[in-house]
Amino acid sequence: MNCILLALNSYLLSTMRYIYVLVFLFIVTTSFYAQSSGSWRDKTALLIYSPRYFGPRAFPVPELRSGKAPDNYEAEVRGEYHYYAGDRTKDLFLRLLLPLVRGRAGVEISLIPLERYRMTPETRDERNAVALEWSNNEPYSGDVVVSAFYQLWKSEKWFDAIISLNLKTASGGRLCDARFTDAATYWIDVCAGKDIAGGADPGRVLRFQAMAGFYCWMTNDMVHRQNDAILYGLGLSGTLGRFSLSSDLSGFSGYENNGDHPVIWRNDLRFEYLGNILSLGYDHGMKDSLYDTYSVGYIRKF
Fold first, then answer.
1. Which residues share a beta bridge with 24?
2. Residue 184: which residues within 8 A CB-CB, separation 6 or more?
3. Which residues lie closer than 8 Å to 92 by C-beta, 6 or more apart?
């Protein structure tokens, strides 16, 4: 009988040791998982909410408009490649233009449904990001921008001017890798334009364009909850037959001086035939805009 009790006691002790080991491993594993899954959230407090320390589409520099409200509906699809030494990013850009009153007012919606990236370890550490590149197991998309525009002034003798109100939603993903801000941004701008050569012939036009406005975005700074910036742009556009070329220098200047002064030299060549437009673009980033961007797009006018 004693032998049986001793054997049973030995069995229970070994079983308890086994259970203790399992419990210990479970606690360690779950603690490690909790720390690893929460680590990226802990690092978001270290992110610097400015164009210099985020992905190329986190803080869009508004495009310089011609000063004329469009007459036609437009649908655009564009592939973009953003390059700088520390980050290479590819994305898909979609845009829909809806004139509510042709030549007077309308709405424009754009979004980034797909983005892929690869950073160097130095860029990842500089931005306080977590991963070096996109993973197939973690699909994500970018922000949606909604714009409403209205024709303020229209004069062949003087100039044309439109005002636009713009909102970038907090819908973008991968905040942990500083791809999109997960915070709202809005801007108000006035774009003016005037034909300076060949205005009588719509197939041969040279036009001067300018932009001024206000740009604001939310941050993770508990003291300065938002950053305010002056928005500006100057450029020329020309049309010769079915071809058109535009070039402008645009950017904005924030007040925190933490990488919030991006400038872009933007160039766009287009060929149009029967409402179908093929566009080739090149953007050169300066100051706190680090990327050079190459793009190919197709636009359909209705």
1. none
2. 167, 168, 169, 170, 217, 218
3. 77, 78, 79, 80, 112, 113, 114, 115
Which residues, in sequence order, are bridge partners of residue 283? Answer: 266, 293
Residue with tokens 């998309």: 141
Whole-angstrom CA distances from 112 to 18, 57, 162, 179, 191 are 52, 8, 25, 12, 24
Residues 6+ apart with CB under 8 A from 91: 56, 57, 79, 80, 82, 112, 114, 115, 116, 142
Burial of 51 (0-12, 13-18, 19+ CB in 10 A): buried
Q: Residue 75 and residue 301: Cα distance in Å, rounded?
A: 7
Residue burial 216-228, b: 16+ Cβ < 10 Å; e: rest: bbbbbeeeeebbe
Taking a C-beta distance cutoff of 8 angstroms, is the pair 84, 209 a contact? Answer: no
Contact by Cβ (8 Å): 193, 221: no
Q: How many CB atoms lie within 10 A of CB 69?
A: 22
Q: Which residue in this structure is represented by tokens 């980034």?
A: 112
pTM for the complete prediction? Answer: 0.83
Three-state SS annotation for 56-98: CCCCCCCCCCCCCCCCCCEEEEEEEEEEECCEEEEEEEEEEEE
C-alpha pair distances (Å), 258 with each of 6, 54, 278: 72, 12, 37
Q: In this predicted model, what pLDDT tens digit does every residue of 135-157 receive, in sequence order?
A: 776 778 899 999 999 999 999 88
Token code pair at residue 75: 């649908």
What is the rounded CA–CA span in Å between residue 270 and residue 123? 34
pLDDT tens, position by position, 171-185? 888 898 999 999 999
